[in-house]
Amino acid sequence: MSIMTALDGGLSNLVNLVTAVGGLGTAAMGLVDTTKLFRGGPSNFGFGHIEDSLAPFLDALASSSAPFGKNAILRKLKADWLNGVAKDDQKAKAKSLIELSLSQVDVAAVANVAAVDPGELQSAVQKKASGLDASPAEAGALAQFDAMLTAVIDTAYERADQKYRNASKFLAMVTSVALGGIGGLIVGTGPYDWIFCLLAGLVATPLAPVAKDLVSALQTAVTATSALKKS
């Protein structure tokens, strides 16, 4: 019996179809997730945006002899990104590492990025590191720099996370289409079965997160239809 013929069985077969397609999507996402074993797999997507966005701040640390220079900070940030550390924690870590390293370098370059006076920012950073009180002008420069750094980090991580999620969904969709096509070749007997399986693979990934709720709704519809027929 072909797949298309099986669909003529009514709502009960439709419930089984949705369950199967949702399972295919879940399996595809699981397969994509397992590729993280190989040097991070899809987790590498998005981090380049973080690196590029923070470049104006990190370049000032490139020649620093501080424990957390540019390369050390990038290694730490990438390790957290690949390991899936909570996004808010990653943002806080990026901000703290950059700010802690500022006292070891000439902050003129990063001061220009934040549009603050380099001398006031340098003095504020040095006084903060020494535990001294900054003047109002120095405190204002430091606050403005802090606000700019926070905005850049927040935007960078949000955009990077969006890129990672979109890339993962696309890879899962490609995987589900491939699995659907293989399944159609193996079990299909009707002329349209292979095409139907490809289409099922195409919708499997977006359907997977809502498959359970959709099945529950269809089962309720089946029950209601049966009750109407008996009345």
Termini Cα gap: 33 Å
Helix content: over 70%
Radius of gyration equals 27 Å
Low-confidence stretches: 1-8
Instruction: Give a short account of the largest sheet.
Output: none
Query: What coarse outline follows from CA principal-axis ratios?
Result: elongated
Q: How many separate domains make up the residues? A: 2
The computed structural class is mainly alpha
Classify the beta-strand content into a percent band. under 5%
Secondary-structure element order, as H and E?
A: HHHHHHHHHH
| Secondary structure tally: strands | 0
Average pLDDT level: 78
**How many alpha or pi helices?**
10
List the helices and strands and how they pair.
Elements: H1 3-6, H2 11-34, H3 47-58, H4 70-82, H5 87-101, H6 108-113, H7 118-130, H8 136-187, H9 193-207, H10 211-230
